[in-house]
Records
---
Amino acid sequence: MLAIRREYIEWRDIWVTGAPDESLPRLLLVGDSIARSYFSPVEAELKGRFLCARLTTSTCVCDPAFKKELALLLDDYRFAVIHFNNGLHGWEYDEADYASGLRHVLDFIRKRSPQSRLIWASSTPVRQGNDLNVLDPRTDRVRERNRLARAIAARRKLPINDLFGCVIDHPDYFSGDGVHFNANGQNVLGKEVVRTVLSEGN
């Protein structure tokens, strides 16, 4: 059994807009703090088309807690579309473990929420906080996780949203820590999520 490796601080943020409303299809954004940062632009753009919810968390797909977090939402709400990203946490797990965890989580979603249109989104690069023009070495691992995840998504015939490609050539989109995005970057990512949801979420 894989040993559970957690960060010093683990966090999760669950947000459901229009919880009692059944008049519109629901969209669930799953991710980390990057997804949380583009949630508001996505929700604003899709107002009147989708009721938006989010599960943003530091939990890696390798951790059994991830399925428990998902179940809190999937058991209580019917989502028409789930836009899924995970990959910038759980650095203590190697890439083989990450791929295995991702396969299990995607299968869990399909079983728990069979009506949902599932979209996989690549993880974004990491830059050096002291020089945003330089990629952090962790970006090599992000590329490998994305490569593995893309293959897993392709085998399941899932639509792919390449958020990595959307920002890799734009250090100007990043905030000073090299991980998160400034307002411009958040809006760019949000527009890409909206475009993908509208084109692939049917």
Note: The mean pLDDT is 97.
---
Amino acid sequence: MIIKVCGMRDAQNIREVESIRPDMMGFMCWSGSKRYVSGRPGYLPDVCRVGVFVNPMADEVVLKVRELGLNRIQLHGTETPELCSAIHKATGLPIMKAIHVASASDFDVCSAFERADGVDMFLFDTKCSGWGGSGRSFDWSLLDRYQGCKPFLLAGGIGPGMEDSVSCIGHPQFAGIDLNSRFETEPGLKEIDKLSVFINNIRNYEQDK
């Protein structure tokens, strides 16, 4: 299972999270976020670095790719399939497209993005008034509505004590989870003890399967 820890910013906290061995770390490249990374942190991890953007211009993404040494792009706004393809072409990086979910019909847009060049993964997050960070989960039974061929990460309100629920997800395209606000002491600063326990428990569940 892929484990992505998002909203990283502080150099020392990045080092501490890296020691827990997540598969990906996310860096907020949208200036409207409380976790916005305005410049290159003093330390960058040796894991897959994901830049999270909201309705960006392609040249803006290219600059952040260079500054942060990004390995993957996450588009978290209302980007079109055409913009996804354009950003993929400009950067050469794979695209993870966020789909905001409140009802079964929200998965209907996935088919258009499945045909977009460079989109190789989805992130299903809870629909809210802003761009994520709600700290709430949507009804995971809705995942049955997704019948696509691309793998997905699950986001939105995943926190301590939810290991059993995560491990019981049986969708064939379920690839992993995105962890953020439920493991923070403040925006952009992760609570290492809680995060370590959760990740270790998830890894143990995977070994026992």
Note: The CA atoms of residues 15 and 45 lie 7 Å apart.
---
Amino acid sequence: MTDALLNVEGLSKRFGGIVATDDLSLTVARGELHAIIGPNGAGKTTLIAQLSGQLRCDSGRIRFAGEDITALPPHTRSLKGLARSFQITSLFLDLSVLDNVALAVQAHAGHSFHFWRDARTEEALRAPARAALERAGLSGRADSPAAALSHGEHRQLELAMALAGNPRMLLLDEPMAGLGPEESARMVAKLRALKNDVTILLVEHDMEAVFALADRITVLVYGRVIASGAPDEIRANAQVREAYLGDADKGSVHV
């Protein structure tokens, strides 16, 4: 793919006798929302951690925007435009929503959190923080304490914090986790709107959301890619249906 933003070749990671990612290759085109699905233990979160630099690869290569970033630390990858969200939110609950995102702007710029007081007053940090909150649909809650937000709003705040550095690519690890139907629908709408502005690699268990959003889907089982393609191709793939989505023989596909 000539217009690839992310190119992963032969990525592997072991934890003792457990193979988390196994000679995994993946390409994500600029401007697409690419979903990663698979059963528990398939290696999805390990893949995201390797891409973001939180986990060192045992072997393989990661290229981002044409540059080999395999050995780069997380903060350097962030500065190059690669931003990650997590399955479990990590927020400063005693600070306001805007303060949390201003700190994220500061961190993406490469500054220490020791200067957090500046983030509460410095307009150069707060203006992009407000813009990120607007993109995440939380501008109306900017002055609220983070502790006062609902779980769904916490997920939106985490999204805003990932957007704070105006990344070229978002690595989203189960943004719908723990959300009710209405909150999930709002998150799907927000991610659909973001597709126009930023490339997204989405790990998600909510199959309805995945098939509503994804341009392409890659399926992992035991750390290996068993299929990758357009949503209709994945839905019709018998190997995928048997391994993950349902029982192909019974015609039951849980999407």
Note: The chain is about 35% helix and 25% strand.
---
Amino acid sequence: MKLLVVGAHGADFVWRAGGTIAKVVEDGGTVLNLALSYGERGESGVLWKEDPNRTVDEVKKLRHEMAQAASDILGCEFQCYDWGDYPMILNEERINQLANTIRTFAPEVILTHTPIDPFNPDHPLAYEAVQKARLLSAGAGVAAAFERIDPPRWFSFEPHQPELSGFVPDTYVDITSVFEKKVAAMGCMKAQSYLKDYYTELGSRRGNHARRISGIQSIKFAECHQSCVPVVGNINILKHQR
């Protein structure tokens, strides 16, 4: 599998999709972990408190090092567009930049944020950027004049407060075999270390849900996502998959 993870900020991937990333890599797949910004303004409070005299560039550098270390643990490539955060600004040039990345990498699956998040202004913008760029990269056109790829499957990963973000999970990924890697990767994010315990507990809780849904007792930890496009296939897609 080729998986593209698009986070608004440099640490979003590790909390919401770190296990899924590591599982794809464990199964022989390739993952491009793309951050639209470093989260240097809105999600680096600890770094600013440690040293109020730090510059924005210094905070970006620290955030890059953290994201790179976490990505190395999970086994994926990390890139950051450095679009800025709080607020993130979308324009035609930036949408085309993301569309070109999608065309070049040609992922089979894309993971990103939900279209609603009442607590973070950048997360819905990341969703909007992916929605538009995915259409541009896979839209219909004259073959000789319009480079395109097959439409990737597209999911939203779980937001911090799903009940307030319209998030209804329909896909659970068993991350039991790679959960220690996710925990280690989360430990790299010193600017938001307070989230590690929350997402460790969430992995266990979602594992409990996955066991009850599937009956697969070996599942201890899971991540859940919500599909943004229908499933298409032959009659076998109706069969219960294990």
Note: The CA atoms of residues 38 and 64 lie 7 Å apart.
